[in-house]
Amino acid sequence: MFRTSAVILIALIVAFLIISLVSSQPWHTIQIFMFEPVSSKAHIGNVIEMAIPLMFSGLALSLLFKANLFNLGAEGIFYFSGVVAASIAIHAQLGNWLHPAVAVLAGGLVGALLSAIPGILKAKWNASELVTSLMFNSILFGVGLYLLNYKLRDAKAFATVSYKFQPTAILDKLVPGTRIHTGLIVVLVCIVAVHFFLYKTKWGYELRMTGINRNFAEYSGIKTAKVIILVHLIAGFIAGMGGSIEVLGMYNRFQWTALPGYGFDGALVAMLAKNKPFAVIGGAFFLAYIRIGADQMARMSDVPSEMIAIIQAVIILLISAEQFLKFFKNRMLLREAAKDA
């Protein structure tokens, strides 16, 4: 926890130094960046709204990373599951609470099935999950965009958007005057469930042991191939729910004409959280907070919002460096132990 806090602090110091060099009013600009996200009810709502999909993607990727699987397929699953949920939101005739529940469940199941493909390839043939998941992102985006353009698109709208969702499919708002929706409750329940799964069940223990050392886990009798497929199914289901909930909670039409970016952002959230479910909440809120701060800074000062990319890059660089140094230190210790033996 201390190391992660130090990484965040260093990244913010670097950002402040750059702001002081770029801005004509650096102190005022830094104040906007730091405090504007909590200056009003609407801005606080924006932070929470942005944190919801980040928590879903961060939770999904933290599970995969916990199993030592570097899978970035949540990006494509987020998009395609949103298309699936939008289709049900447009065409199905269901009741108020049942309609969004069916749409979100369908998106989650589709996400689980799609995520299982790289999982099976990894488990059976040791195919790189990073390569296959990135390839699937492009495939899912292409298929989803085709469905949007040729099956769901509203020809009367002056943009590439779907028909309007039925009112019964849109998620209820929790706080008047904001767009904070019931997806917040769902993702918090998912975080508690994943924590229980990881640390209180036999399957969670097998997942953690597989992530620490797959060869040792197999030697201990754990069927690691099944573990790999299982974690892909669970992570895909969570990511699929996240994409569906984001679409039904924040929009009244499907309007993503590019990959939303939440899947890749989830990797950063998972790294900040050290792959711990409850810490995902803090990681997601931190990333959402600085993004809203950067957006307000771009609106109210002379510093562009792209500043946030620098902060993210520094965080990733420092976390990666920490992991590299830890690996190098472990190898040195093993060599010394071998010499002593």
Task: Quickly describe the structure.
By secondary structure, the protein is mainly α. It is built from 13 helices and no strands.
Description:
With 341 residues, this protein is mainly α. The chain has a domain at 45-280. Helices cover 76% and strands 0% of the residues. Helix 4 (74-91) packs across helix 10 (224-250).
Contiguous helical run count: 13
Mean pLDDT: 91
Principal-axis shape: globular
Which regions contain 5 or more consecutive residues with pLDDT less than 50? Answer: none
Distance between the termini: 34 Å
Q: Name the helicity range.
A: over 70%
Taking all Cα atoms into account, the compactness measure Rg is: 21 Å
Could you tell me the number of beta strands?
0
**Which structural class fits the helix and strand makeup?**
mainly alpha
Feature tags:
13 helices, transmembrane helix, 341 residues, 76% helix, single chain, mainly alpha
Protein topology:
Elements: H1 2-22, H2 26-35, H3 41-66, H4 74-91, H5 98-125, H6 129-152, H7 183-200, H8 202-212, H9 214-219, H10 224-250, H11 262-272, H12 277-300, H13 307-340
